[in-house]
């Protein structure tokens, strides 16, 4: 009888399990159906999330990324220059974008009006480059490009502090994952390296060779290679040929291929200037080549550790 009693209780226990499952499953459905207040809150959240998107979309359409060659002169340039710094500092990001485009117009067509306030404008642009709005960020970098192209010797017009802050932001933006930001910042840095005197710019860039961010190091290395390509032997000697080779040798061991390729370009530029100076002495090529090679190896061995000297020598030999 005991066995029968056990057999009889097992089905009863099995039959009760679905009821328990049903009781557990019922409350969530009941809560969803019986909580209209939560549905209203959800609608409010959706409304709050959708409204900024609509505003942002409308704002993005209002902001145009105008190429430099299509920017026309300002209608009232003196008035624009007078209120430019305040407009750049506006909390309304659309007004800030308009002010950035006005900055570009003044830089291209009215540089004499922009020059007296250039440092204040540069510091204001640095602030706009930290703005989370993509439209403000891109327009601010475009403004940097136009300023570089129209104010070649920028360091003579602004303080070291203002330029250092701008340079840091450009390097950081060029190192971002967002492609449109990266490309625009790289374009600005190419304009910077092409328009500014290479020697003072190289002195500024040298500090970033030791930056903790490897992408920043790589972007700085590319800018250094652009500077070295524009320098003659006199400028290299003023900077220090040994120092320039040491910078290149350090970047040759960097983790990123972009930095290593830039370092090889620096070595090629230094060697090219070195060989050009030797050739200008009027010696014949057959007699000059061994002397140049020996002098180059001597410079490398005096400037670098043996392993680095050998690596630099190989790069120079392969570039010939």
Automatic annotation (TrEMBL):
Protein name: TOG domain-containing protein
Domain TOG: 64-306
Compositional bias of kind Low complexity: 23-39
Region Disordered, residue ranges: 1-59
SMART domains: TOG (SM01349)
InterPro entries for this protein: ARM-like (IPR011989), ARM-type_fold (IPR016024), TOG (IPR034085)
